[in-house]
Design goal:
Blueprint: H1 7-15, H2 21-27, H3 29-59, H4 64-72, H5 81-90, H6 95-106, H7 112-125, H8 132-139, H9 145-156, H10 160-185, H11 189-199, H12 201-208, H13 212-228, H14 230-233, E1 236-237, E2 240-241, H15 242-255, E3 266-268, E4 274-276
Antiparallel strand pairs: 1-2, 3-4
Helix pairs in contact: 2-3, 3-4, 3-5, 3-6, 5-6, 6-7, 7-9, 8-10, 9-10, 10-12, 10-13, 10-15, 11-12, 13-15
Length: 293
Amino acid sequence: MQICPTPVVQALLAASPLISPALRAQDGSSAAAETFQVIQSEFESASQEWMASYNKAREGGADRAELSKMVASRPNPKDYVARIKAIVTADATSADAGAASVWLITRGRVTGADLGFAMDVLAKHHMDSEEMETVMTSLSRNPAPAVSRFMAKALEGAQGDMLASALMASGEQLKSAASVARTLAAGTEEDLERYSGYYGREAAEVLKSADAGAYEARAVALFERLIADEELSAVAFRRETMGAVAKRTLFELQNLSIGKVAPDIVGEDLDGTPMKLSDYRGKVVVLDFWGDW
């Protein structure tokens, strides 16, 4: 006697993201693509449903404790990482593996070995992805040495707007690396443990012994290159242009970093007497910036 599954069971089997790797391999990359789409859609749908429920509860007068419980139950992209990685592992050269790797970095916010895995796949097979700008922006504040190497790889073949984005993101990343390197060099074991939690122990130890000045010098060179090219400088970025943001960031690097001589400040003291910061050169000065709105 042959048992035929019901239409409902057939639909569940067809849509299930838990199809075994062996069965996926029989259908080739199209099956992997479908599975990635299913997982991605599953996460987005769960996120949208959660947001709708949260907004309904908030508008309905839910107290802070209830809302806190709801926040704790928000769909976590990290719960989907293992399944997404399986798609990439099945065929790292496929377009869907590239899209999945982008997802791991930009949505999954992976760190450590998982981040290295995703960057390695992109660097080897998908540097021409249209999503590389989003990837680089997502990584621009991550000081890990592996990210610095990935950014350098992205710069090699970048052109046009993508080159402008790569210069900006790489410069920002090196600036962040310099800041963390200085913090760790003068910090305690607790600082090292904290940053190890963010970026991994190996990355934190490398940054602790790194030359912060060398990171800054490389960042300065990238920002200067961006500013000097009129076409790249004119590319839109954060409601401004790449050039405007790069100039501001370059000024910060060259004048406002730890160990730099503070720019002169001219104003009046509490009695209305003109004063300059440079009048106090050689003395300990505390600057208190505040506002009242």
